[in-house]
Automatic annotation (TrEMBL):
Taxonomic superkingdom: Bacteria
Protein name, UniProt field: Respiratory nitrate reductase chaperone NarJ
Alphabetical list of Gene3D superfamilies matching this protein: TorD-like
Keyword tags: Nitrate assimilation
Cited InterPro entries: DMSO/NO3_reduct_chaperone, NO3_reductase_chaperone_NarJ, TorD-like_sf
Stored NCBIfam families: narJ (TIGR00684)
Length: 236
């Protein structure tokens, strides 16, 4: 499903490849048969506005939105398992799922990163791809609502995904869930998380000297993700 490839590209960290392949994305949007006219137009406007920015500004805004706090994280298991040990096994299981379909990760991205998962679904038969979207529909709805609450342009990318999933998600319950959420991306909230993790780290490691590795963008210094030939990539 080429539509999943398009959204995956737009949800990726906006590196140089986005500007280099912008025309392919516009052409793919124009040729899509599964997006309704309104959604295709919204995605086109989103892409136009994104590439009109200075790349450094677009990258800074992206990191500010998706890398600060956990509420808008694009790591799927963050919203399911949090920091529990079940998350590690879920990662292993998802990697095995990718390998069963002949896919191997060639970047340092985690397997539950939403753009990567969409790329995977795009290679499956349509019924299986839609089934995969149904599985994560509650997470997509939650992210969509939080991004809308923050008045982020990125919210429009989740609307076609939810429509393609064609499953009922109770929007009122989602709205109730986020209504009283405290923002976790403020300096105060981030400091509290850092202090909590530091305490846990030393509790686990004892008093010996240890190096605490600060969280950095996984994209920093990484090879740019490979672009599919979206003139026919993702089609089954």
């Amino acid at each position: 499903m080429i539509e999943l490839v398009i959204v995956s590209r737009l949800l990726e960290y906006p590196d140089a490849a986005l500007w280099q392949h912008q025309q392919e994305l516009f052409e793919a949007l124009a040729s899509s048969e599964k997006l309704d006219k309104g959604d295709a137009q919204q995605l086109g406007v989103f892409l136009r506005d994104l590439i009109s920015q200075d790349p450094l500004d677009a990258q800074a805004a992206y990191s500010e939105l998706f890398d600060r706090g956990r509420a808008t994280s694009l790591l799927l298991f963050e919203h399911v398992h949090g920091e529990s040990r079940d998350r590690g096994q879920a990662m292993v299981d998802l990697m095995a799922q990718y390998e069963q379909h002949g896919l191997e990760l060639d970047s340092r991205e985690l397997p539950d990163h939403l753009p990567l998962y969409l790329e995977y679904l795009a290679q499956l038969p349509e019924s299986e791809a839609i089934g995969g979207l149904v599985d994560i529909a509650p997470i997509l709805a939650l992210l969509h609502a939080r991004l809308q609450q923050r008045e982020s342009r990125y919210a429009v990318l989740f609307e076609p995904l939810l429509k393609l999933a064609n499953t009922a998600v109770d929007s009122e319950k989602v709205a109730e869930k986020i209504a009283d959420e405290a923002r976790d991306d403020t300096p105060q909230a981030l400091d509290a998380v850092w202090e909590e993790e530091q305490v846990k780290f030393f509790a686990d490691q004892g008093c010996g000297e240890s190096e605490i590795s600060a969280h950095k963008r996984r994209f920093a210094g990484a090879v740019a993700p490979q672009y599919l030939d979206i003139s026919n990539g993702g089609q089954q």
